[in-house]
Amino acid sequence: MVFAQGKLDRLKKNILVTLLLLVVYRIASQIPVPGVNAAAIQSYFAESGGGLFDLINTFSGGAFKRFSVLALGIMPYITTSIIFSLLGEVIPHIQELQEDADGHRKIQKLTRYFTVLLCAIQGYGIAAVFESFKTAGNISVISEPGVLFRVTATITLVAGTMFILWLGERITEYGIENGVSLIIFAGIAVELPSEILNKFTLFKNGELGGFNLLLFFAVIMCGFYVVAYVEKAFRNVPVQYAKKVVNNRVYGGTQSLPMKVDTGGVMPPILASSLLAAPATFASFVPEGSSFKMIFDTIQQSLYPGKLLFSITFGLLIVYMTYFYAPIQFKTKKISEMLQRNNAFIPGIRPGTKTKEFLDFILFRLSFFGAIFLIAICIFPSLITGTQTRFDGTALLILVSVAIRAMMNIQSYLYSDRLETAYKSRGKYSGSNKRF
Are 325 and 254 in contact (CB under 8 A)? Predict the structure, then answer.
């Protein structure tokens, strides 16, 4: 297969610049917030395990447990984007703005403004929580706690999140994959070597048996395979387009409308994890002498990962979030209207309302299988291995889905160049016998 040298050079440059920007992101994630005792905070999380903020730490690539300037990661922006997507479903004016080009830019601007506001709230709250953290030797992780530290930390964390957002936009410009997705991918992937090394260390110290070690890697490899298989699985709905002749060529006929089996993607587990982390988050803000402290602590211990109540609640929330988020991702009403405008229909189904009802029926069934898949990939690995790991279902979904999309984008880039070269070689765009 031959590709133009200029295209290959441009692709190599895009990949190199993307990798350099990701390196900048990883370097920035190592810089602690001013006033943080780096050794003390590392010792604190080594002693406590830090299960409270594991979700935030996963998406920040370990920056949260270092209380880095990028500790909040990109999650505030994702949360704000989801909120505006949900508002678009219930507020017609926002939905109209999302469908219009100028309105979409306004929504993006509002999303950034609300991201700054959310970062400020979360940053101040996290700074206040970190002030109460002390190691076993009664050493505070914050050198000089107080209002000045909270304000400084809030400004630093807000600037860190907006810097990540800026990096993501620069990465997106090079067309390999969405920058925000690649940043989350890099944050998770960089933790994988330490997780593998940790398992071998436990095996070397006799804390983990050989069979359990092999079982762990077998479950992870099976998880990668299953996620990759399901992520590429589609339900093709036949669509009949009206035939028309343009320049002696016939266009139209029978085509297909692909519907993903896992329509909700990675968002249902993320939303479910966020809801499960809410009681633990509230417990951290309740004073020690409060009468509600014991109640929140009991709920937190019952909903700790690995417990039976956690697995049941997590599974039910995944099912609910799958059925809740799938219609937001695949808008059946909009697609049915688009098919009707283009003189297309599903064989045996009337255009308009009947088409929407048929697509809703298919989406409902696909959401059922998607929910079962998400429950299996998010809960079963920890139940089988009996240990908690960074290779949870959310991490597997992000790693595989982003890698697949990046590979597909690169292949599309190269094949588009091959198609263009083939047309030019046949005199379609140049030469004395050009057709246009």
Answer: no
